[in-house]
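Team,

Forwarding the record for the chain on the shared tracking sheet. I've put the sequence and predicted structure together so nobody has to dig through attachments.
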Amino acid sequence: GMAILGEQIKSKTATIAAGASLSGAVVLGGDLLVGVALTTWDSAGMTFQASVDGGVTFYNVYKDDGVELTFTTSTGNRYVAVDPSIFAGIEQLKVRSGTSSVPVNQTTAEVVTLILRDPAS
């Protein structure tokens, strides 16, 4: 049947502390990431670390062409639409400011809102 929008779309937040470049882990719980919302953000791209073993090990996220998955989020106040298939199978996710090779510390604590969708809906 048809699900009410509010039931199939949910959000969780990942926070990057001031002076840091990597957020804590967010448990996706089987939901698919469909978007990322930023209010403020020091100029940097956005990359990710993923865990598939309950948060024991985190891996930098690469696309199948060998390039690190990077969102161009030079500043805040934007919504970045995400292809949910890229994040299918990821149990836990961390958000990074910058890349794995060149992380960029944020000057203030940054809250990144992860927009999630139930894959069954």
